[in-house]
Amino acid sequence: MPLDTMAAGPAGPAGPDLILRGARVIDPSLGIDRVTDLSFRSGMVAAIGERLAGGAHTEVRDLRGMIVTPGLIDLHTHVYWGGTSIGVDAVALARSSATATFIDAGTAGPGNFPGFRKHVIEPALPVRILPFLNLSFAGIFAFSDTVMVGECEDLRLLDLNECVRVIRANADLMLGVKIRVGRGAGGRSGIAPMGPARGPRALERPLFRRGRSDRTRAAATAARADHTRLAARRTRTSTTA
Predict the structure, then answer these.
(1) Is 225 helix (H, G, I), strand (E, B) or coil?
(2) What pLDDT score does 148 carry?
(3) Do β-strands 59-62 and 176-178 pair in parallel, antiparallel, or remain unpaired?
(4) How far is CA 158 from the centre of its chain?
(5) Cα distance between residue 21 and residue 98, in whole Å
(6) Which residues pair with 133 in a beta bridge?
(7) Per-residue confidence at 147, pLDDT binned at 50, 70, 90?
């Protein structure tokens, strides 16, 4: 239910299950940015307004100094936690950051993406992880303070056919392809890693259909529509959103 159409007051004769009082409620898509109360019933936002009434069994939480907002989207993350040295735990981070959707910027490659999907992406739901696939077969596999090996340094790891195969098998998730060039990613290979990406032989038909490839936009639309999972993040009320 859109926040701007909610009426203040108890949700039903028994009152709401939960009331969040005094939070700064921010939803740019609806033009909302004000300090107010929110009530919930059966996991859904029931009302927004000043001094909302509760029932005998309503839980009330004081959220003064916090922000309540629809789940945020982090556009550049590495969340293959446990699979690569660069990954962070998306679920743990979501609980403390109000982030509901993580765009993984090509942590996994064709060789380890199935594990990324089975052990991280699917168990993380309802936290969304939408990935780019690294062109390198091993993805970003050696990125730490003590071990640094660019995934594109050995050109033998760059196989466009493998990349296409994994993308087609996971077309419901994939946003695109990640190729890193530069000294850190490719050593002395220069722009050579871009060569396989231009190879036409593996692309007998489009990888991403028009209207379906921009899953970042779809995630934003879903986040705006999904007002049942609002997250509270502690911050000062004077902080600019």
Answers:
(1) helix
(2) 81
(3) unpaired
(4) 27
(5) 18
(6) 177
(7) confident
